[in-house]
# Entry
Amino acid sequence: MADRNVYFFEEGHLGMRALLGGKGANLAEMTKAGLPVPAGFTITTAACHDYFAENNTLSERLWEEIRQALDGLEARTGQWLGDRTQPLLVSVRSGAVASMPGMMDTILNLGLNDETVEALAAATGDERFAYDCYRRLIAMFGEVVLGLDAWRFERLMDQVKREQTCTEDQELSGAALRELAERFKAAVAEGAGRPFPQDVLEQLRLAVEAVFCSWNNPRAQVYRKVNRISDAQGTAVTIQRMAFGNKGEDCGTGVVFTRNPSTGEPGLYGEFLLNAQGEDVVAGVRTPQPIAGLRHLMPDVYTQLEKWCGQLEMRSGDMQDIEFTVERGELFLLQTRAGKRNAQAALRIAVDLVREGRIDREEAVRRVELPHLEQLLHRGIGDAGGVQALASGLPASPGAAIGMAVFDADTAESWSRDGRPVILIRPETTPDDIHGVLAAEGILTSRGGMTSHAAVVARGMGKPAVCGCEALEVDAAARRMTVRGAEEVVREGDWLTLDGGTGRVIAGQMPLREPAATPELLTMLRWADELRSLAVYANADTPADARKARSLGAQGIGLCRTEHMFFAPERLTVMQRMIAAETDAERESALAELLPMQQADFEGMFEAMDGLPVTIRLLDPPLHEFLPGREELQRKLDAAVPGSTERTQLQRMLRRSDALRETNPMLGQRGCRLGIMHPEIYRMQAEAVCLAARACAVRGIDVHAEIMVPLVGTAAELGLLRGEIEDTARRLLPPELLAARPVRIGTMIEVPRAALTAAQIAEHADFFSFGTNDLTQMTFGCSRDDAEGKFLARYVERKLLRDNPFQVLDADGVGQLIRMAAENGRAARGELKTGICGEHGGDRESIFFCHQIGLDYVSCSPYRIPMARIAAAQAALEHGPLTGSRTAVTV
Amino acid sequence: MADRNVYFFEEGHLGMRALLGGKGANLAEMTKAGLPVPAGFTITTAACHDYFAENNTLSERLWEEIRQALDGLEARTGQWLGDRTQPLLVSVRSGAVASMPGMMDTILNLGLNDETVEALAAATGDERFAYDCYRRLIAMFGEVVLGLDAWRFERLMDQVKREQTCTEDQELSGAALRELAERFKAAVAEGAGRPFPQDVLEQLRLAVEAVFCSWNNPRAQVYRKVNRISDAQGTAVTIQRMAFGNKGEDCGTGVVFTRNPSTGEPGLYGEFLLNAQGEDVVAGVRTPQPIAGLRHLMPDVYTQLEKWCGQLEMRSGDMQDIEFTVERGELFLLQTRAGKRNAQAALRIAVDLVREGRIDREEAVRRVELPHLEQLLHRGIGDAGGVQALASGLPASPGAAIGMAVFDADTAESWSRDGRPVILIRPETTPDDIHGVLAAEGILTSRGGMTSHAAVVARGMGKPAVCGCEALEVDAAARRMTVRGAEEVVREGDWLTLDGGTGRVIAGQMPLREPAATPELLTMLRWADELRSLAVYANADTPADARKARSLGAQGIGLCRTEHMFFAPERLTVMQRMIAAETDAERESALAELLPMQQADFEGMFEAMDGLPVTIRLLDPPLHEFLPGREELQRKLDAAVPGSTERTQLQRMLRRSDALRETNPMLGQRGCRLGIMHPEIYRMQAEAVCLAARACAVRGIDVHAEIMVPLVGTAAELGLLRGEIEDTARRLLPPELLAARPVRIGTMIEVPRAALTAAQIAEHADFFSFGTNDLTQMTFGCSRDDAEGKFLARYVERKLLRDNPFQVLDADGVGQLIRMAAENGRAARGELKTGICGEHGGDRESIFFCHQIGLDYVSCSPYRIPMARIAAAQAALEHGPLTGSRTAVTV
# Structure
């Protein structure tokens, strides 16, 4: 136990936040600054720790300290707790280190009992006020300390108001409130099986314990989980002389923000209630007035408030959320804290504060909350409060979409051509559905995970998608879907709203919030770019995506998935012919058709990224992903005319499909294994890259082509393929071009063995790009598709995992491999460029990790680039910039 | 280039084997020992290296050295190469470091031309002899140096014999042989486009180059690959004065072994030919006589041979294979080397040599070749030389089996009951086929890999199996199978022979070789046990297997796969009911039925292993493996009576099967993930272990129960499950029993992340068992089922991988993880026991690796235990015993 567990406000300061909690530290600071704060003291978070450690027992020693502080408070105020002439009344309030507004408990007016209430009435000459305080205490104590339901007291209040034929609380007379206090006491005795304690010290002791315990109430636990606040911190408890806003019409209570929390506009913003105590504002019992009203009602108080608010903002360097009470025309400040704000306001406030010289750019960048950016950059559902979702699936691709339900790709395409927005709903999508995906506003599937075809394609296109929504039974043939266990039926043409950010599927059309790249956002991103050392690349598969990415600040393409280029319908047919080829000549002929298409793709990419690197990954997925499903093939085959060419082709595809079938496709013949078994495919791709580079160079475009070999597990694989690619480059590129702009060749590190043998692999690699999706799957031995909807969520819930490792990079396991590989790779080849692609490239914590281990870049989807730019700057601010000093880093 | 590249025999010794090759070093040793060896010298392997390094050019410097050595040889013999009165004739022979009998080339009688042949005839007075030598030289030179086909010469020989009306070569007269030499010369000129060289130095130079080049002939390459001999070594070349076995009836040539190479029986064993040169024996032109015949024909020579053979065996300490020539009654030894022998002989010889005091036990154990043990311990096909296999599949479970083809499990069972041996043939097996697998002699499937159901179950039972034999089209309904691209049809009842060791499927009944645990084998194993420090455990799933394992020397059970216990038909039904349960009550009731079955299994295991550890792995495979295939379920459902209970149950199973379907089952919900999501399953298993331990203890059995949690990826998983198992143990076991014989709890390390975080996991583990099968799959990102039949073989062929990593542990990647995990685990918990289970436990190289990194045990299938005992001893001999010094090991 610490030597000291209780501090008067004047003994503390802002730097004692960890011990005194946010509220306690702020009150100390305000007291120091001479602001009008009612006297009080704070019990530390360390005392709360001890309380939990002792099985929720308040030690005699701590109680003794509290008693002594109480003596001091009595001396300071000239009032005494339980005194029959000058009774001291106090508030007992929680105060966590991180702000958790409204999550924990508070008790006001503590110190009243049947005797002191009379003394208060006598001392103030206001029976009504005294019993108003008393009935409030009894109810609050009943709820917070004794765990009674609020309805017990509300019911009695309504009863008394009916008896008095009042509608508003403040119309009740002193006598009526006295009666109410009696009935409340009876309710406590009945509900709790014990009377409301008349011993004021017992009140205090129980209240302190109740506030400690409120740290662990369910809503506080949930709030901490959502906001990633440690469960270990505990709460401080502040005990403060009451200031009374309920003594009459020259009294009141309110909450102000120093700037508008919705827009960021400067100037006081808030509301107040005359003749009321704080909880009335919170509880919504009465409707408060806008703060501007106070200017007319109490001009002096308003001027004072404005001045002090300005002072508080100045001291803290941030927009403040301030509670105040006016007691008989005198203003008291009860609390100040950094105010919660929405995305747009947060940016505007930070930028304004820099411009006003209150904070520097570093601080402004440090304060950006990344979820805010996500709100700004994707369409979202404007206000879905209270709306019941039909079902929820996996949030497979962010953004919101509204459209009419359609159940096949052809309908999606034709309706969309007619100007009708559509949501494409399929049990799961296949490459054959691609034209429907292109046409749709959003995609909804009942099967498949975060890496299913639909999810991957939708994310690549920046199109909202909800996948693996298992509660839905999709009957594509009947053009309808039903929700399991419910009666709702969605038919073709019904309106639906999808929220790809949360996975919700909502019937009808919800209002949408459009993305907003405000000037403040652009300013902030510029500042971030000055601060960060980590480069930000994009994952983009088409020239349009590349242009989008560049406009959002991408410094290169870190991952261009060539397979997505094969999914367009006219190409898919050729690709399928290539796969089903039975002779070398047939295969070569299909590849010859694909070559100019790939070349055109690459030319577009190089043009869009003129002067910046474009990393092209050679074909990765297993070939069967390009074929229709077996059942569909069989169906088409049954329908084909006997003896027709189509039938022959279908038969071939079916045979090939059977031959390609794999038990664990994730671990099968894909990536460079394909490139080694079918060298003609990679050869065609390397030729297309080189021919595109040559054609672009002729047009004056500065091409930085990088070819990335996927799924390498051994140095020998990369060595072999590198040799073949180099041969192609020497064959197709003029020597002077090759010398000036060499085609760089590297690999994805996504197989654990590649990370373990990075030193050998680096001998053949110009760069490593960590494919953290697959690396996580293999390192955990956990298929994302199979795990995410099933046990992974439960694991996080049960704290067997801190985070879903597919969202936040697992530093201990996967991160250890990445760190080893980056270090050993660079040791073997000093100029090795390292980065990550995979969805972790857009996650803050993962970006911090990449910065710390000295990677050169992160690559993420275009829409996450702004977030990545900010996160990279924040990482540099937290851990120092690492440019040029990579090899000196010890992690 | 080395200073010296040529050594006379008398200048070398046995220690120069790397430089002189086996033959050269042995000839040097024999010369030193005063044995009758014709004079000669050896060109080193280093010179061969240089020859290849210089693009197959024989340097002038080397040629000069050879010329000088030739001068020396002429001085020693008093004969001169190319001399017209005393011509020197030499043999030019290859000599690799490792014995590669018959793989490379040899030229005899070099030095003859149209003039020296006359001189030889004059000097010996034997025209017949001289021209016999000459025609041999021309043909050999034509074949070896000029690359002509042997048939060119054989045809001419036949022609001349026909003309002379002879049947045997030695009946030909001098004149006939002179004519033959002429025709041979013409054949050379015609076939090679150049005449047979008359310049004897040119003959020599070309012969040396040809012998160098024969290192890379195709059969030598294949031999090296099969015998794991490095391609880099190169061959030495020995040039030696000819001794002539073809000078008449007092001459001859032969080969003897110092012991019988088939049985190991002591005493000369071999054969000889009168009036012949060495190649006649090898080529099979004439049928040689048993060596015993020499005793009567040339008693003195025989006595001498016997003496010298004994001396050679004594010096080398091993059974020798000796070439000799008798020239006019004088015995010459041309070569000695360790003799090839079969499995049984090898053991007998080694044991006899120890008993005779020639070698010590260490040396005897060191010499054991493990493939020999495999031959001894499984039935094999006795002599399949020349037999064409119907098809080849994966060698899924070793041993040979003969039976009649059946195509379903029920028929297999009923025929087997009738005493008819059967081979069960299925496209692939499922748990529903288990009674057929039990009844069959061997299993054959057309689909599925080395880890398919059939393969795993068959290996577990020690039953021969060939899997994934894709050339077969199995039509189970029509009760027949066809071979793709062939006309053969196998119908029910046809005899088949399977070789599970090679994957061959042969029509008809082949003779089988029975396994033989000879007394010599038992002696050798006893010696190995004295030498090794690595313990050998067994993977065994039934009490019968455990007893078998114990009889073969298992010191514990390292892996008991509890799931195999659920595959018996009466249990499978209960298991399926458990899986399809829709309420907790239903599931609990099914589990309550399974509990006594599991308990009985474990009691049997504990009883069989009384006093030794039994490691029980909790349920591992995904639940869908216990359900019939989807199509089968649908078929049964269609056939079920509407409204019947069976139908309801089938519907449930179908629904459950759909819900359990996974994209990558290897990476899905299995292992401890099941145990965490369905705690009742592991609870039942832990209860069964404890109840069995208690029941056994009462019967006086000394139980060492170890519970192994599979597929752990995080310390939290193991921590949670350990707690639950410990609770069960405390609940069910009397405290004094638990104190004396604690249930040890450990985990399989088979997920890369577990290896990476071993220090944390070790906090909850009493032991680590490396599951090298899955660890290899995940570290390589490579599904064995999908890879082994497809790209993996090609990878090994193309040297992208040295070995199939599922057969030989990949030391660089997977091994690195194992080493890290073992080190970090032991650092965190000193008493941590470590070992491997998985099939690498039976592989020599992998066992060496385990010994080197200081693991405590390897666990392998019962039939591989003898091999593992020997390999562990060999590892200790090579790397020193590591007992007790584990922590001092630096690897």
